[in-house]
Amino acid sequence: MTKTNLAFGPGVVVRGVVFRENRWSVSADGAGARSCPECGEASASRHSWHVRRLQDLPIHGVPVVLELRLGRWRCLNEGCPRKTFVERLATAFPFARKTRRVSDLVRLFGHAAGGRTSEKLLARLAMPVSDNAILRQLKRHASERRDSAPLRVIAIDDWSWRKGFNYGTIIVDLERRIVADVLETRSAKETADWVKQHPEIEIVSRDRSGLYAQGVRQGAPQARQVADRFHLLQNLRESIERHMTRISRFAGRPQLPPTAGDRHAARRGERGHARQALFDRVSLLRASGKTFVDIAAQIGVDHRTVAKWIKTGFPLHRRRLALKPSSPLYFQEFLSRRWAEGDRVGRRLFHDLRHRGYTGSFSNLERLLSTWRAGGVERKRPEQQIRKFIEIPAVDPATGWQISPVVAASLCMKPTRRLSPAENAKVIVLKRASPSFVILRQLATRFRSILRGDDPDKLNNWLHDAKRSGVRSMQQFARTLSRDIEAVRNAIVEHWSSGQAEGQINRLKTLKRAMYGRAGIELLRARMLPLETAMCT
Ligand SMILES: [Zn+2]
């Protein structure tokens, strides 16, 4: 090998090459910039020599070390605080122990494959670097990264560090389809601070948690907020599921008419009866030798719950136990008797209650009485009323088991043309068994097509109908939609959605798992942010 054929970049003059300790040692002299980094003045006065060892690209699968003899020069500018400096090279950053082309490769590998895998691959490619060094370099690069391209349309979504415990935030540039940032927490303040740095943001697609909505309002009031269509449909499905769960809890018993005026007490009463009925059924099934799993499938609850009920007994009157003489409900029997007799003056009832040992306040009693009084008023507002449907549990014709609320909810949402024959059979059974399912399915189908269409004005009619559907969970869903109506309308007008963010979250989860316990926010962020692929040579 002749030294003239070897090119190590500008400013490097090769003097010789020797094979030593299983690697090529290339000795060279520097001929780099000799101007002072402080004042910029050129110098020709050498102070001493300085040797720098740099890892470089391999030659024929053999590692290469560049041993560079660089001059240390005097700064002759008397006004300059710096006395000497080492000449600088285009091939490597100051203080780096690798040439820039090796650094770039290390960064590429680290970004794509993480620390340990890259360590193995790079060793095989004759560029041995420890995994710690790989991760350090990746993190440093991500923290120094300055993205200059303006952000116009973004999606904000959350992801979980540990499911149900703590959450982080991901921000995606929807136009360029890249991750804009990864934040450690999920909070309105952090979101506000982040978007404040990007006054160019015009559109923000987000889920319906009020947190991001609030953060964006604070930090980027100029931006149009778009409720994400996927999350809207998910919320709708969840509220249908809640309703179907309620139906299966009541397990086909006709719901009891409200007893006294208090709708809360009435609801509690219903629940108590329904629980008793459910418990009777569970005991009966158990006595007939059914397994927990069979029982669970028949009544539509989790098999662990069934096991708990049978082991520890049934939580019949959970709330009754907590009542104390300081609560007017403790004296409910007495109160409702007096109420029924027409004795409705709060002061007088309070006086009599005190004699019976009531230790609570007058206003506390008044609160209860006012709901009883409102019970009469409520019946005059038909749109507020919850219709009483006669529902019987729907049984899957294929298995003979009750159709679970989860399955019922997803079938409720599915358009008819996409139902398989088996699913269609279940839908028919559900419709026959439950009048509220028919209403929910019509509403869900309409909502879907409104979201897919381009006329946000159709929303008003839909909300009107949903609020009068007589199904409580659907009314709740409609009310929360109304509160966020601007963003929901934008979801119909704008074509942007957070779909990409979901994809990026999946990537993040995969990375997090592959990194085991080492996935700190810095490293996750470094691997989620796009890599600038511009390589220097
Ligand atoms: Zn100087």
Structural topology:
Elements: E1 12-20, E2 23-30, E3 46-59, E4 62-74, E5 84-86, H1 100-113, H2 115-124, H3 131-144, E6 153-162, E7 166-173, E8 178-183, H4 188-196, E9 203-206, H5 210-219, E10 224-227, H6 229-250, H7 263-287, H8 292-299, H9 303-312, H10 332-340, H11 346-355, H12 362-378, H13 405-413, H14 421-433, H15 435-452, H16 458-467, H17 472-483, H18 485-493, H19 499-514, H20 521-528
Parallel strand pairs: 2-4, 6-9, 9-10
Antiparallel strand pairs: 1-2, 3-4, 4-5, 6-7, 7-8
Helix pairs in contact: 1-2, 1-3, 2-3, 3-20, 4-5, 6-13, 6-15, 6-17, 8-9, 14-15, 15-16, 16-17
Your description of this structure?
This protein has about 525 residues and is α/β, with parallel strands linked by helices. The longest helix is centred in the middle third of the chain and has 25 residues. The two termini are about 20 Å apart. Strands 1, 2, 3, 4 and 5 form a five-stranded mixed beta sheet that branches. The protein is built from 20 helices and ten strands. The C terminus is likely disordered. The protein is about 45% helix and about 15% strand. The site of zinc ion has 8 residues, from loops. The site of zinc ion (ZN) has 8 residues, from loops.
